[in-house]
Structures are given as structure tokens and as C-alpha cells.
Amino acid sequence: MTPNIKIKLPGLHYRIEIPEMLQAVLLIAVGLAAVPVLQEQLGMTYEVALTAVAIAEVLGLLHVFFSDPVVPGWIASALPLVLVYLSGYDSGIDTIHAMIALQLILSLLFLVLGSSGLAHRLMKIIPASIKAGILLGAAFAAVNRVFKEGSYFDAYPYAIGIGTLVTFFLLFSAHFKVLKEYSPFFVRISKYGMLPGLLAAMIVGPLVGEFAFPTIEFGWIPFDFKTLFSDYSVFSIGFPSISHFVQALPMALAVYIIAFGEIITAEAVLKEASEARPEDHIVYNSNISNVVAGIRNLVLALFVPFVPLAGPLWAAVSVAIGERFKGGKNGMQSIFSGMGTFKLSTAFFVLLLPVASLCRPVLPIALAITLLVQGVACSYIAIDQVSKDKTAAGIAGVTGAIVFTSEVGYGILVGLILCIILEANPFNLKKKR
Questions:
Q1: CA 86, 56, 273 angle in degrees (round to 5)?
Q2: For 88-100, what is each residue's pLDDT tens digit?
Q3: Dihedral, 290, 291, 293, 298 alpha carbons, nearest 10
Q4: Residue 410 CB coordination number (10 Å)
Q5: pTM
Q6: Confidence of residue 2 (pLDDT cuts 50, 70, 90)
Q7: What does DSSP assign to residue 70?
Q8: Burial of 229 (0-12, 13-18, 19+ CB in 10 A)
Q9: In a domain? residue 432
């Protein structure tokens, strides 16, 4: 069934919210963490990578524009697997084509499953042990990416260590949850997600000599559309080969499974927010999320291959905005005013050179902390899915290990075989009456 899409415009359909605008100024540092990824994996210059990030941020505006009440982001939990996938190709044009093939297939999955309404049915068919195994493989890859020899932790041990500890305490600590019950101050801090950890890293790094204090520059970021188009667009370098598409298919399916988990999270967050304000009922259509994410990935694949990929939800920010929405109409006019303001602001602030120059020294650290956060998140989500089934947990462990050490396709294949042999009803088939 084709989703019913309505248009939302700032100022006309929702007001600008100052708190979300201020959050966006600070949290754009997380979005800019994609810059070192694009430099390392696709060989982009700093200027080209900045241009790519700016385009990706602007495309994120499409969600609220088409009445999808979320703050979109990367498919961050899939990033470690994508990095492992790209490492199997020769640097240069081969890696770029591999990335384009992956993003094109992923965009097709989003578009077809979203416009047809089949996404939920597909996710019910895939066994929980396979989903958990893919997430465990992503968790292993994320932690390995940070701590393997010669990687980020070797270069910035103090900044990453302190930044990660602060971030983990604010996001995952049971002690911090207790503190939030006693003080509104800690509640406000929690709404900034990873930001306090990044600020701690920005202070510690220069003090211990791991990187220099930033040099603030003024103006607009140095765009390089010409190089981006000539060296990375399919209209200049050609489409990937059939073999690239064949090899990318299992990875695209794995990434979609992870992305669909974000859609489920969005449904839960918005349902809770809507129940708190029944007079302002939130209508969330996961098919619209699928279609818009598909459009974003399609545009990026054709013009700006984007390693972190375009995902349907930035969970930490969406949760924070949802919490403020619960406070009533005086605090936030509508869910669209919060989500729309934040994304509109990030799309603007990413263009400002003072922001980019301030964040530039800390971008590798921001990426490392992001990967470690995803490692923890993927682990507990995976374990939760199979916690009540020893057989499924065992299959998930084996699948995750193969996904990390070999290839996603082999991991899924082995996992499916084990599901068929070991599990009583792996595909949730209905029993005959």
C-alpha cells in the first residue's frame, strides 16, 4: 500500500523551537564525524568529505518535509559492518563502486518494502537468532575498529578513554538514572546524548598533547562539488559491475535488518510521546520512513556515496525531543516543531566554517566514541532478542562471530542452516489447527 504523504513546512506548519536549535549547534559534531570515515574509506579530501556530509544533512530534511516525525541520521549500528565490507576491496575506484552498489541495493529495499508495506512481514519471517547474530557481529566489528593495533585508541588513548567513560556513564549507567530522578540538572544533561563526552575529549586531548586546540575559521565550509561529481558520481565513474552488486546483496540485507530495528525504536518512542499528549496525537507511518530513507540513499548512491548510510532515526536526539514534547504545548508546539527545527538547524550549521573548524581536531575521537556506543547498543539489543532461548542465543553467537571474522553472507547462511536444524519454529510459521 502506497503511504499517504503530506507536506510540512517550517513557519507554516510548525514553529521553530529554540532549545532544539541550540542542541543542533553542538551535536553537529556527531554528524561531522563522518568526515574521517569518508576520507579513510573512499579517499576523499577534507573539502570533498565536508561537502558530502553537508549534502547528507540537507537530504535528512526530507523526513519532516514528508510528515515523518523523526530526526534521521546514519545507520550507525551498521557502520562497523560496512567498514569491514569495504576493507575487502582494493582502495580507489573498486571501493567506491562497492559502496555505490551497497547503497543502491539498500535504497531499493527501503523503497520497495516501504511502498508495498511488506517491511513488517519480512522482519517477522527473519529468525530472532539471525537478527541478533548480525547485531553481535556489528558490535564485535565496532570495538575492534577502535582498539585494533594502529587504530584510533593507539593515537588518542586519553581523549577516547575519558570521552567514552563520560558518554557511557550518561547513556548507560544505572547510577546516572538514579541521579536523574533527584535533579532536573542531570535530566537536562542527559538530553545532549554524546555531547558531554565529546566536550570532555576536546578538553583532555590538547591538555595531554594528543591533538592541538582548534583554530577557528570564519565563513562557509570549502565546498568541492566539482571533485565530488567527477571522482565519485556514477555519472562520471560509471556504475558498479554485476559482481559488485552480487557481493553487496547480503550486506544490504543485513544493513536493512539493522535499520528496521531503528524504525521499531521510532514507533516505540513516538507512541510513548503521543500517549503523554493525547490532544496532539502523533501519526507515525513506518512505510513513509522506509520510502524517504530509500530516496535519500538513492540520491547519495548516485552522486555522493556515503559510508555511514542514510538511516531512518537518530535515536538519542529523537528520544530527547520526545521527552521535551511530553512537557506540553507551551514547551513544544508539536512533535514536528521539535524534530523539524533540529534537523533544519543541523543542515544549516554544518555549512558554517566556524563549526567545522572547531570540531575538526576531535572528529576521529567522535567517530571512535560513536563506534563504541554502537558496540554497547548492538550488544544489549542482540542479547535481549535471544535472552529467553539458549538455542537461539548459541546460533546468534556463532552467526555474529562469522559475520565479524568472515563475511556477512556466510554468517547469514550458516545462521539459517543452524536455525533450520536446531530451532523448532525458526520462521514463526503458524501451526495447523
A1: 110
A2: 899 899 999 999 9
A3: 140
A4: 14
A5: 0.85
A6: very low
A7: S
A8: middle
A9: no
Task: Cell numbers for 214, please give them.
Answer: 582548534
Q: How far apart are CA 136 and CA 379, in angstroms?
A: 6
Q: Which of 68, 24, 39, 37 is nearest to 309 (CA)?
A: 37
The set of cell numbers assigned to 394 is 548459541
pLDDT for residue 1 is more than 60: no
How many other CB atoms sit within 10 Å of the CB of residue 29?
A: 22
Beta strands in 70-208 (DSSP E): none
pLDDT band at 222 (very low <50, low <70, confident <90, very high): very high
Domain hosting residue 98, numbered range: 18-422
Task: Please report whether residue 10 resides in a domain.
Answer: no
Q: What residues have CB less than 8 Å from 394, skipping those under 6 apart? A: 422
Q: How far apart are the first and last CA of the chain?
A: 30
Mean pLDDT (the chain) is: 89
Q: What is the DSSP letter of 330?
A: T
- Joined grid coordinates for residue 119: 517491511
Q: What percent of the chain has pLDDT over 90?
A: 48
Residue 111's contacts (CB-CB under 8 Å, 6 or more residues apart) are: 290, 291, 294, 295, 298
Residue 275 lies in a domain: yes
Strand partners, 10: 14
Query: Which of 63-72, 107-116, 149-158, 329-338 comes out lowest in average pLDDT?
Result: 329-338
Distance of CA 42 to the CA centre of its chain: 19
401 half-sphere exposure, CB direction, 13 A CA radius: 5
Residue with cell 553467537: 397
- Domain assignment of residue 86, yes or no: yes
Taking each helix axis as running N to C, give the angle between helix 18-32 and helix 195-207, from 0 to 180 degrees, rounded to the nearest 10.
50
Distance of CA 185 to the CA centre of its chain: 28
Asked whether residue 3 carries a pLDDT value surpassing 60, the answer given is: no
Number of domains the chain is built from: 1
Cβ atoms of residues 395 and 418 within 8 Å: yes
Q: What is the mean pLDDT of residues 347-356?
A: 92
Q: What angle do CA 134, 35, 114 make, to 5 degrees?
A: 45
